[in-house]
Structure formats: C-alpha cells, structure tokens
User: Fold these one by one.
Assistant:
Number 1:
Amino acid sequence: MSQEPLDEWVEEAVAWLAAHAAANAGFERALRAGGWRGARHLSVFQSAAGIEALSLVTAEGRWFLAGTRELPVLQLCELAGETPASRLETSERVAAWVRPLLARSGRLDLLGEGE
C-alpha cells in the first residue's frame, strides 16, 4: 500500500522534530495526531541539507513553529502572515528570533506577551 506524498512528508517532519527540536514536543504530537489535516497554514523550509524549519497553524488556531536556523524560521513566520492563530507554541530560542517580527506586526500577544 503506497502512502500519499503529504503522509510521507509528515513522517519526515515528525522524525526531524524528534531529532532537532526537542523543545517542540507539542508540535510533534500535533503532527502525529493529524493536526495538519484541515490546517490553516502548513509550511516547510527545506534546503539541500534537509528540513530547517516547520510551521503549522491548526484548524483550531494553534500555531507551531520550529527551526534550527533564524532565517528559515523568519521566512516561515512571514509566510504564516495574518493566518488566524490564538497562540504560538515554540521554543525559547525560536521565540527570541520571531519576537521583533511579531512586535512589529502587532502580534506579540501570540507569545503571551503584551505590546
């Protein structure tokens, strides 16, 4: 039985999260539980070196963001744009990278912080 290409990508993303983004266990659980089905936003930044960043805004408005380098994370943050989200769930490292971008766009509350 063959898998759909998206299923294979999700398996690769889950493995990457487990290996590179341990602080994002919630993201890994959300992917495993099928949170990408019906998602408002789903992006992957992949280079020749492999996956470098992932972004998911679930249908329920949970935003997960993970990455190993700042530039790919910021690019996925920009791609998420104004996608409705109630809270950003990410590591402290990634939060520090995106904090200025979220502050400029008036969305700093996604990190649980005031303006």
Number 2:
Amino acid sequence: MARSVTPDPAIERPWSGSFGWNAWSNEWMPLPHIMCNLRMLNDGQWLKGHMGYIPEVEQYLYWHGVAAGFIYRDFRDVLVSQSYHVIAEDDTKFSHPDKDLYRAMGHEERLLACLCGVQQFSGLFDRWALYAPWLNVPWVFKAKYEDMIGRPAEVAREFLAYVWDRTAEGYPEIQKQVAIDDGYVEYVVENMQRKELSATFRKGGSGGWREEFTPKVKEEFKRRGGDWLIRLGYEEDDSW
C-alpha cells in the first residue's frame, strides 16, 4: 500500500497485519489496534502486511486515498513455501509456535498439516477465505506474484499508473495527464526484487509444487481448494 506516486526510499516500511499472533491463524486483531497501525502510514510511505478483508479497513483505506495492492500467488506454491517456513531455523524471522510439532513430521505429513490445519494453525483455504474478498473490491490493484517475477517492469508500470489514478481521483483533467517516469518504474522493480525485505523468501520461483506434491497431497488439495485455481487463471480445469 502506498499513498504517493513518488515513494521515498529513505522511509522505513512499516508492517500492519490483521491477525492476532500469526498471519497463519484466523484470529482477528481488535479493530482499534489495526486502525492504530494503519494511521502510521504517511504520504510517500509503503506499508506491507497480511491484511484480511474487513469492511471498515477497506473504507478507511479508500477515503484516506491509500493505493492498495493485493498480491496473490498459486496456492500450491504457497503451501510448499509454508511447509518449509514452519520448520525454519531462524527464530528471528520465523517465530511461531509448534515448530517442534512440524519438525517431527515427514514432508508429506507436513504439507497435509499446512493444508488442512493442525492445532493453532488454520488450514490454507480456511485462511484464504479471510483474504479473498479483496478480489471483489473494484478500487484495489490486484497482481499475481508470478507476473511480478515474470514481467516486473510491466506490472510496476501498471501499479504506478494505478497509484496516479488514485492520487488524482476526482480530478479527471489531472488523471489524463499521467506519464510514468522510467525512474519510478526502475525503483519499484528494484524493491520488488530485494529478497532481504521479505522474511519468508526462500526460492522466489513458481511451479515448484510439482516436485513436492505427492498423489495424496494433490488429491486432498483438489478436495479442499474447490475451483480457486481455475477462477484465478492458474488452471483451465481440474485435470492438473
């Protein structure tokens, strides 16, 4: 999320999430706490977060002129990423409960645990249901993670054009004057590729699930995932 088309690289990027003790839970933070964090967002500042959909939050962001980007990824790769995240050794970046529980599991069992949920962690699609409504918010910019890594400059330019449109919303004569400077595009692309800014970065690719899924995991994923892969354009049918 950002308010300005000219972000300042010197400004620290705050974090704001909407869930209590971990983004993999489904326990919402108290709304006043979420709003307090959002109020720290200044002009020209980026804010990152795992923000589930809350109508009051959406309205706050809209009326305060925030340019909000909703990034989603192939759920199969998300599942694989989480299965490694939950056993990561670095507790400064990957701090959450039940690590020993996951570390005692085999790889297939761990994938199924992340998919279906276990103890304090909700299942993958139970959590996705709390984010999915952002897809239906017309004023929010949506981007596939795979497009961001496959055609970063194009996505960056689309996002900056969107930010300009949000900034000048209500002034049609200004909106028509948009000309995105190549320097801004390069800045956004550079920051999209800064792996050290992501606490969860592992490989940063796509399609790695093919090497990780067992027939049992694939079957359970299809059972729980419904038609989401088709709806988001990752598959044409259920025959993958």
